[in-house]
Design brief:
The chain is built from 3 helices and 7 strands, in the order E-E-H-E-E-E-H-H-E-E. 36% of the residues lie in helices and 24% in strands. Strands 5-6-7 form a 3-stranded mixed β-sheet, with helices on both faces. By secondary structure, the protein is of the alpha+beta class. The protein has a single domain, classed as Alpha-Beta Plaits. This is diguanylate cyclase. One of its GO terms (molecular function) is diguanylate cyclase activity.
Length: 112
């Protein structure tokens, strides 16, 4: 993760289990989606080397933009983005979903 999200101010977080988060201050939603897609591709290309064997890795990502007028606080924001992530997992087709406050009940999909 640090290879892709390496700017000063980028913060990597473990949210629990196999869930991780990245805070990208001063980043637009489009830029965050580009970085997320770059990370997904890097992970798929590099995989994981374990005991001399390369294992294939895949990921599903949820991306959101904090809106103080919509979210109010960080807990509401994380809940919204977490919802995008779990919707992506349920659908199982798209590797990246976004949580947008202004789109159809708080959720929108980006196709890559």
């Amino acid at each position: 993760m640090r290879k892709v999200f390496r700017r000063d101010g980028d913060s990597l977080l473990r949210l629990g289990g196999e869930a991780f988060g990245v805070l990208l201050p001063g980043t637009t939603l489009a830029q965050a989606c580009d970085l997320a897609e770059h990370f997904r591709q890097e992970l798929a290309t590099e995989g994981l080397l374990l005991a001399g064997q390369r294992l294939e890795l895949t990921t599903i990502l949820g991306v959101g933009c904090f809106s103080s007028s919509h979210d109010g606080d960080a807990d509401a924001f994380f809940k919204r983005v977490d919802g995008a992530l779990y919707r992506a997992k349920r659908e199982g087709q798209l590797p990246l979903n976004t949580a947008l406050p202004e789109a159809h009940g708080g959720f929108s999909r980006l196709l890559f």
